[in-house]
Design a protein that fits this description.
Blueprint: E1 6-12, H1 24-31, E2 48-49, E3 63-69, E4 81-83, E5 86-90, E6 97-101, E7 107-112, E8 134-136, E9 139-143, E10 148-153, E11 159-164, E12 179-181, E13 184-187, E14 199-204, E15 210-215, H2 220-223, E16 231-232, E17 235-236, E18 263-265, E19 270-274, E20 295-300, E21 306-311, E22 326-333, E23 336-344, E24 349-354, E25 360-365, E26 373-376, E27 388-390, H3 396-399, E28 405-408, E29 422-424, E30 429-435, E31 437-443, E32 457-463, E33 472-478, E34 483-490, E35 499-501, E36 505-509, E37 514-519, E38 525-530, E39 540-544, E40 547-554, H4 562-566, H5 577-580, E41 593-598
Parallel strand pairs: 2-35, 16-21
Antiparallel strand pairs: 1-22, 3-41, 4-5, 5-6, 6-7, 8-9, 9-10, 10-11, 12-13, 13-14, 14-15, 16-17, 18-19, 19-20, 20-21, 22-23, 23-24, 24-25, 26-27, 28-31, 29-30, 30-33, 31-32, 33-34, 35-36, 36-37, 37-38, 39-40, 40-41
């Protein structure tokens, strides 16, 4: 593969010159490091803070400042928002929202508790998690498990409006946050394991009226794809690009769900996100490339029309969902300034693309054990350009139905799942929580019934063989070279989101419950503290009355912790995760707590 030159950073995407928009209030909050107004830290998804009161020299002295019990068990993903003097905290199902007064010892200002049908719980894949709230111009947005999008008054908690985004009886649910952009809020959907045909929808932030909806597969007009202007790897996708890649009407139950993270570039006015796995997990039942599942999308925020797409894993055979975050940076690449998009996919490849054109620049493994493909073909003159070169031994399609294909790396939960990475403009590095897990995978014939599981595979998971014995690593990654700079082994998958700060500290959490702080340049561990339950939430920082704080939600669960969260014991339950993570019960237990840290007075 061509070698790329890494040079000095020109400037992080968080430093954009912002055009005027309908949510200037959110834009100003995002630019203020004292607040944390969006789950991803900024529109670019960098999860970087300019705060530096807590730094590599003193982080070892931080202490617990205060705590808050959420009153809910199961997996706590996402993190709190800090708007002015108020912290907004969310929970897993039933998706309670708390507004806490930072001026008065975290006193509860208001509490919103939705009344949801508990029948949504068994329809949710991989735990009852929720990745957090969103804010725009005096409104808190909550996308509930049952797909109800609710707009709450940020001061009082009163409901302004609500709209239903899907139907849990068909298997449509929600685990994700939403993204306010200008006068719209961008919303995804879950349900790939139930044969849902998934989509992204924009609603008006003031009224809840649907503005546009783009499906992941199907007719061009329903995907909001222009066959002549929407490109893939620089060429127009052409008419019926999706329909031609499915057999018959299989696309109608095709998956491609959109439960991950969303980023936005105000200069291009494009929203970026990934679509998930095709349905079913048995590849024999859906021959073809199954477009546009497993795809990076760049859509116009105003119209929803796709400017470009890139399918990472055509005809997915391993459940390598493509929903992980797209991190936007402005960097030197090969000696020239480029507007970049970096994505760490479940399939084990770290991708760097030009976010304006969709040109593929880098595709390299971010865990050396990845074996299902030898590489991604980077030869632009090759008929397989941009495609992974699949190894027959690990191809569940080539091995066939009712055959247990063994030793596939990574496992279905990927080299990284939804747990978001962070980027520091000071080091020019990405900090990535990863899974170091492999699997055996046996596909079988399955029939579709609306609202019933539509999986069609049995899995077992285990630590990557002949390695450090653990199931995770926390790595620093150079996105222009496609290389690991340093790697820290962990006994279990790192299922929390990272945070990078101007203090040259990177924070992350572990499934056993540790909050860890490491040196951004070297990876040296500087601090750790064990919270009451395993951490799958994302680390947040803010400043209040001149003091910097670090906040993290504890509450073990998610796919990796589903055995503990749901009380499952069958090793094959939880889509194979229960057996793989059985030892986790020796290190932590269920909980639901916010822990806030600061330097001592």
């Amino acid at each position: 593969m061509r070698k790329f030159l890494a040079t000095a950073l020109l400037g992080a995407a968080a430093l954009y010159a912002w055009p005027a928009s309908a949510n200037d209030g959110l834009v100003s909050i995002i630019k203020d490091p004292k607040q944390w107004g969006i789950q991803t830290g900024d529109y670019a998804n960098t999860r970087y803070s300019k705060l530096d009161q807590i730094n590599a020299g003193n982080v070892g002295k931080i202490q617990v400042a205060w705590t808050f019990s959420t009153g809910v068990l199961r997996g706590h993903e996402g993190g709190p928002l800090i708007i002015g003097d108020v912290m907004y905290v969310h929970t897993p199902f039933p998706n309670i929202v708390y507004a806490l007064d930072l001026n008065n010892e975290g006193r509860i200002l208001w509490k919103y508790e939705p009344k949801q049908d508990p029948n949504v719980i068994p329809v949710m894949c991989c735990d009852t998690v929720n990745r957090g709230l969103a804010y725009s111009d005096g409104t808190i947005f909550l996308h509930q498990a049952d797909t109800t999008l609710v707009a709450l008054d940020a001061k009082t908690g009163a409901k302004k409006w609500s709209v239903v985004n899907g139907d849990p009886k068909k298997g449509e649910t929600n685990t994700a946050t939403v993204l306010p952009v200008k006068d719209k809020v961008i919303v995804g959907i879950s349900g790939g394991e139930f044969g849902v045909r998934c989509h992204v929808t924009a609603y008006d932030t003031k009224t809840g009226k649907q503005v546009w909806r783009g499906y992941s597969m199907g007719p061009d007009n329903e995907m909001l794809i222009d066959p002549e202007k929407t490109t893939a790897l620089g060429k127009p996708v052409g008419k019926d690009s999706s329909l031609k890649s499915w057999e018959g009407d299989q696309w109608k139950i095709g998956g491609g769900c959109t439960w991950g993270w969303y980023s936005y570039d105000p200069e291009t006015n494009l929203v970026y996100y990934g679509s998930g796995n095709p349905s079913t997990w048995n590849p024999a039942q859906r021959p073809g490339d199954n477009k546009w599942s497993m795809t990076i999308w760049a859509r116009d925020a105003d119209t929803g029309v796709a400017k470009w797409v890139y399918q990472m894993t055509p005809h997915d055979e391993w459940d390598f969902d493509g929903v992980n975050e797209m991190i936007l940076t402005d960097q030197q690449f090969d000696g020239k300034p480029r507007k970049l998009l970096t994505h760490f996919d479940r399939n084990g490849f770290g991708y760097t693309l030009d976010r304006v054109s969709g040109e593929l620049l880098v595709a390299e493994k971010f865990d050396p054990v990845v074996n299902w493909a030898t590489k991604v073909d980077m030869d632009k003159n090759s008929p397989t350009y941009g495609r992974p070169l699949v190894v027959a031994k690990y191809s569940t399609a080539q091995q066939g139905e009712d055959v247990n294909t063994k030793g596939i790396c990574p496992a279905a939960l990927g080299t990284k799942d939804q747990q978001p990475a962070a980027f520091s403009p000071k080091t020019n590095l990405f900090y990535v929580p990863t899974n170091h897990v492999c699997m055996d995978y046996e596909p079988f014939r399955v029939s579709y019934t609306a609202g019933q599981p539509y999986v069609g595979a049995t899995l077992s998971m285990y630590p990557a063989p002949n390695s450090h014995g653990g199931m995770g690593n926390f790595i620093a990654w150079d996105n222009t070279k496609g290389k690991i700079v340093w790697s820290l082994p962990e006994p279990f998958s790192v299922w929390s989101g990272a945070l990078a700060t101007a203090g040259d500290v990177v924070f992350y959490g572990t499934l056993e419950g540790y909050l860890k702080a490491v040196d951004a340049k070297t990876g040296k561990e500087l601090y750790k503290f064990k919270t009451p339950s395993g951490i799958i939430g994302n680390v947040t920082t803010y400043e209040h009355k001149g003091k910097q704080y670090i906040a993290i939600l504890s509450g073990v669960g998610g796919w990796a912790g589903i055995g503990l969260a749901a009380g499952l014991t069958d090793p094959n339950a939880g889509l194979g995760a229960v057996g793989g993570y059985a030892a986790l019960s020796n290190y932590t237990n269920l909980g639901g707590q916010l822990t806030v840290f600061a330097l001592p007075n």
